[in-house]
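Protein modeling request. Please complete all fields; requests missing the sequence field cannot be processed.
Requester role: graduate student
Desired output: 3D structure, token encoding
Chains: 1
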Amino acid sequence: MAIDTAAVAALREERLDWRFKAAPFRPSAAPVTVGEYLAGRPSLAELGTPLLTLERRAVDHNIATMAAWAARAGVSLAPHGKSTMAPALWQRQLAAGAWGLTLANIPQLRVAVAFGVSRLMLAGSLLDPAGLAWIGSRLDEDPGFSFVCWVDSLRSVSVMDAALRAAGTARPVDVCVELGAPGGRTGVRDEAEAVVIADAVRAAPTLRLAGLAGYEGALGHDASTPSLRAVDDFLKRMAALHGKLGYEADEPIVTAGGSAYFDQVVEVLGGAGARLVLRSGAYVVHDDGFYRAISPFSRGAGPVPLRPAMHGWGRVVSRPEPGLALLDAGKRDLPFDEGLPEPQAVRGRAGPALVNARVTALNDQLTFLAVDPGSDLDCGDVVRLGLSHPCTAFDKWTLIPVIDDIDSPDPAIVDLVRTFF
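Delivered output (421 residues):
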């Protein structure tokens, strides 16, 4: 699977300045490039707060662990790139053996194409005529470019076919029929209707029926027995539908699997007689919240658990009450939709400062940290925070420092990851 490594490497020539809130503040020096800055062997203490960081050891572990597990299971991985929108991380996932890359919309696809990713899946229907014309032109211009999206209605098939005819696209666009479930997201709810949609795809000269798609993650939000059963029931519906669609592709695909239930996807769909493509994305970063609790590897499906690679950093800017500290990081900096940050350590020191500490709320720019009234946490201290849900952490940062060791008193900065949201 190809990505333009030269385009990724060129990101090191980007100049660090006021455009990036994570960039070093150097009032007496001219801006330097990413590469020049890293050559100076900087450390975390040089950066201001608020801040989001990645830990290299954890990222390395997570990529290798997921790639090895997928290889042993005999399945393909097309990581959901929307989790990070970071070409440098995409490159590492593809180098580890990923089959392709999944994205969620046209703006994200444009980033992937700009960085030369040659096999892309859109996890949904593409009904924008301008977007369809653009994809059609890419397919016609580059025989090595591969693209697949989904359809879940006869109207979707009609809209796609009309737009591609109007654009004069010569090469058919691959589509998967998407099966859904009540209470889920997109996807046709009825199997009989799915067969009718498949017939319509085969009848459209601008489209090619490539496989079956579904997303089980919306049917459960924890690892409880009811959630696991709901996921299992849906996947069995996919397995039953798979043999009824009559694909046109030489190698049809069946695709499902986020970062919460991919073990069940493999168990139920692994013997479907098609290429099974997982779309897990959050695994590369993992977290200290939602995915820590729900990941199959945390529940014993893998040899070792994944490791949280992202952390927030906030500086104490006020201690207005004995039991309260306010940090200079808030909703604009940290994710909060799948649980509040958890205080873990005070940078550069040990001690009882965070005993019984907990985050109670976030404002736009502040974190409310409840502490023991006798805590010695003071203004100027920098608190490390465990975070939940990487997808809503990365979109707040266009540049993310990568450190070598989260447990070091002053970790070294070994890379800067550029994102494109």
